[in-house]
Please model this.
Amino acid sequence: MKKNDLRLVIATILLLLAIVNFLPIMKSLNLISWYSRVSLFIIYFWFGILKVFVLSPAEELVKHLHHITYAVLFHFDTFFRLFGVYECLIGILWLFPKFTKVAFILILIHLTLTVMPMFLLQADTWSHALIPTFIGQYIIKNLILLALALFLFHFSKLDPYLKRNKV
Model:
């Protein structure tokens, strides 16, 4: 056996080992993906439905933000309930992998809106420089939702591979 042939055999064996070790990782990622989708559904649907029925503890913050931003466009009650429906829709869309891109775009818009109080309502969101209030902490935690949405958006690009290889 020639030296180049031996290298080819070794490279093939290493590639096969990598593939065999990679498949269980993909199965784990698939499970994590579904757990992530259900988590986003629960958070968005639950918080959204509270707004629809006007039971949300975030009502005062949203009302204050609405007053300085969208008051000329919408009556608050209409805005608040529509915002709740919007959140419910985001949650439902995450349950369907084929709508991942749409859900991702909608969540980016939502997170942009929900971070606005950090800049526009600083008295409500900051007690001192770099010291957020409880409301500010609540908003900052949305970074986790963004990270999860980014993971699902990028993971969804692997779906054709997963389906083709029955992972």
About this structure: The chain has a mean pLDDT of 87. Strands lie at 126-128, 131-132. The chain has nine helices and two strands. The longest strand covers residues 126-128.
